[in-house]
Amino acid sequence: MVALIAARSLSEARAERGGAHVALAGGETPRRAYELLAARLADWEGVELWFGEERAVPPEDPRGNFHMVTETLLAGAEIPPARVHRVHGELEPHEAARGYAAELRAHVPRGPDGVPVLDVALLGLGEDGHTASLFPGDPALEARGELCLVVNAPKPPPVRITLALEVLQAARRTVLLATGPAKAAAVAAVVAGPDAEVPASLLGGEATELIVDADAAPREAAS
């Protein structure tokens, strides 16, 4: 389902605007979706890949999201390196964040408020309701005017670079993915509506889709 939605969204964006900018989720949840997406979209011309967040690690580090995407999506799709915009996690984190923000400004069309508008944002959902690397209670949730932020996550590796909430909220389409029973409470919290203690619930809007498996679905929906 995720691969199908992403492929359709990217194709529509290219048809309407001549190109497509997609932010990729990290972690293990989207791994299979990326493998399927690589095969589902035969033509990757004009597609630019971005990352919703990255750990402050070198590109070859298996803990990094770039490493996971390299093993899955990039292993099956012919995408020139120039269109794969990785976060340079091997640099000093604030330098990496500034560099990524500059790259976003240079390549992604901006909306009326000056915030880059991604065509698709693929995001994961944590057990605590976090998305990208925006965690409950983090001052980063209140940041305005910054595209990328350095955060200290409550799980290893702690130092991360994440897209700001404003950037994620500006995406034309957002797909929030959750699997497994451990995510059920977080899914229910997102469905309940915006809550500052549940960062993923702040994405909001009709452009956001929540895709879950049976184990992660709220009990009422699963029954």
The strands making up the biggest β-sheet line up spatially as 2-1-4-7-8
Largest sheet: 5 strands, parallel
**What is the first-to-last residue Cα distance?**
21 Å
Beta fraction of the residues? 15-25%
Shape: globular
> Helical segment tally?
8
- The H-and-E topology, N to C, reads as HEHEEHHHEEEHEHEH
| Category from helices, strands and their pairing | alpha/beta
Mean pLDDT: 94
Unreliable spans are none
The helical percent reads 25-40%
Give Rg in angstroms: 16 Å
Description:
- The chain is of the alpha/beta class and 223 residues long.
- Helix 1 (2-17) crosses helix 2 (31-40).
- The strands form two sheets. The chain has a five-stranded parallel beta sheet with strand order 2-1-4-7-8. It has a three-stranded antiparallel beta sheet with strand order 3-6-5.
- The chain has helices spanning 2-17, 31-40, 65-71, 73-76, 93-107, 165-170, 184-192, 219-222; strands at residues 20-24, 47-51, 53-55, 120-124, 148-152, 159-163, 174-178, 208-212.
Q: What is the strand and helix layout of this fold?
A:
Blueprint: H1 2-17, E1 20-24, H2 31-40, E2 47-51, E3 53-55, H3 65-71, H4 73-76, H5 93-107, E4 120-124, E5 148-152, E6 159-163, H6 165-170, E7 174-178, H7 184-192, E8 208-212, H8 219-222
Parallel strand pairs: 1-2, 1-4, 4-7, 7-8
Antiparallel strand pairs: 3-6, 5-6
Helix pairs in contact: 1-2
